[in-house]
């Protein structure tokens, strides 16, 4: 059989069409008329590369004429090709999708966009220690990410680069006399910052970021979250401040003691506030008789990353008599007692030695100054007065005439009560009457 499946010749020749083969003769329906005939496939015209689709299914036998649809018989769409029933026009070949337009920046304008337009200042990207750092104009030191700013700052501290560290702070300190490479390197020698790791760079609701960082500070693990404010337009990320303000609580201290306090061998500013890099704050005194430390009341904790997150510290200096100061007080005490021993009075004024016996002849005493002052101690110093307490015993030798004309010789154990004014150099010793 050479016919196609549509009741006509196969337009592709030779092969059977897709219709059913060897069909039985059609039987008339209940109405007695012949069954419907399938339409013939076109015999000529343009041939397509794929077989025509199968015809629609035949209507039910005995069915009446077809009814118009809900909207009636509609004319074909404009431009739709007509054809016999069952004929579907070929689908047009889809056009390739257009590539999205890629707008490359022009030479000058593009550079301005890429590098920033703040106040007409172009930024230049520098690679420092693996971190992109922007420089240019007033915005030196900004980075592309908040975590990069923290990493670059810690690296600058560790290598003792004061200028690079300061460039990573938005607010600049009013005094940089203690923000030098020399001091920074001394800080890092005692409490180095090592093994820095960034664990997170978390955006905040105000456009800033919170950087989670861990490191070893002086060999001790430290874990901190450092918050950075949103950069101004056209600027990179920076810390709010690269310098730590150190406030000295010295309002109630004797002015003579307060003025002797030093920070990294420099006097405390008159404002009572110094600016240093986070880390060790080396306190000292310009008076060798005194030593200065942080009050135990607020602890003597070693530096941590917490100081970088706050960039502030309050110091309650504790001023004490140094070992050198104690020896200085003993030397001055010896001089004062020697002076007392020069008197012939039974009770030298403002001296601890006295021989108040009724049969002694007035002004007949010959005193010998103590040679051993080990029993005398230099105790607590009052920070409000700057005076250290002197207390103990000292043995004087004495030779005195009596009313009977005899001379008595012996020793006198004097109770020594006094104080030393440590605001003076050397200390000034005076005695309270016992």
Automatic annotation (TrEMBL):
UniProt key word Protein transport: no
Low complexity bias spans: 38-50, 61-70
Organism: Mycolicibacterium septicum DSM 44393
Transmembrane regions listed in the UniProt entry: 113-134
Skewed-composition ranges (Gly residues): 1-16
Keywords assigned by UniProt, alphabetized: Membrane, Transmembrane, Transmembrane helix
Span list, region Disordered: 1-105
Name under which the protein is recorded: DUF4878 domain-containing protein
Pro residues bias: start-end ranges: 17-27, 51-60, 82-95
Biased amino acid composition, Basic residues: 96-105
């Amino acid at each position: 059989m050479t016919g196609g499946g549509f009741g006509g010749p196969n337009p592709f020749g030779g092969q059977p069409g897709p219709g059913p083969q060897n069909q039985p003769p059609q039987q008339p329906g209940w109405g007695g008329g012949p069954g419907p005939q399938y339409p013939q496939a076109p015999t000529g015209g343009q041939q397509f590369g794929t077989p025509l689709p199968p015809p629609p299914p035949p209507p039910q036998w005995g069915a009446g004429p077809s009814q118009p649809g809900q909207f009636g018989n509609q004319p074909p769409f404009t431009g739709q090709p007509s054809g016999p029933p069952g004929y579907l026009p070929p689908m047009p070949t889809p056009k390739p999708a257009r590539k999205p337009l890629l707008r490359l920046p022009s030479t000058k304008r593009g550079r301005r966009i890429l590098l920033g337009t703040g106040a007409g200042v172009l930024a230049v990207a520098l690679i420092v220690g693996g971190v992109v750092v922007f420089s240019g104009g007033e915005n030196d030191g900004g980075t592309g990410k908040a975590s990069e700013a923290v990493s670059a700052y810690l690296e600058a501290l560790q290598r003792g680069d004061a200028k690079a560290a300061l460039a990573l702070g938005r607010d600049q300190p009013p005094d940089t006399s203690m923000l030098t490479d020399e001091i920074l390197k001394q800080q890092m020698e005692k409490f180095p910052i090592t093994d820095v790791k960034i664990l997170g760079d978390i955006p905040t609701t105000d456009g800033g970021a919170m950087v989670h960082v861990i490191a070893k500070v002086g060999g001790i693990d430290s874990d901190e979250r450092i918050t950075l404010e949103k950069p101004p337009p056209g600027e990179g990320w920076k810390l709010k401040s690269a310098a730590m303000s150190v406030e000295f609580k010295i309002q109630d201290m004797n002015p003579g003691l307060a003025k002797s306090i030093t920070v990294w061998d420099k006097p405390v500013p008159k404002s009572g506030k110094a600016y240093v890099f986070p880390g060790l704050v080396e306190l000292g005194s310009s008076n060798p008789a005194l030593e200065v430390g942080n009050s135990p009341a607020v602890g003597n904790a070693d530096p941590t990353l917490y100081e970088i997150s706050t960039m502030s510290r309050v110091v309650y200096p504790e001023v004490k008599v140094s070992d050198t100061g104690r020896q200085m007080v003993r030397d001055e005490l010896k001089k004062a007692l020697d002076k007392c021993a020069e008197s012939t009075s039974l009770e030298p004024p403002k001296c601890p030695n006295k021989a108040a016996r009724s049969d002694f002849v007035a002004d007949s005493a010959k005193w010998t100054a103590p040679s051993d002052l080990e029993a005398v101690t230099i105790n607590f110093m009052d920070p409000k007065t700057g005076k250290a307490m002197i207390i103990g015993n000292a043995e004087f030798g004495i030779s005195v005439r009596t009313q009977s004309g005899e001379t008595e010789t012996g020793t006198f154990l004097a109770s020594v009560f006094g104080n030393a004014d440590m605001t003076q150099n050397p200390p000034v010793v005076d005695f309270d009457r016992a």
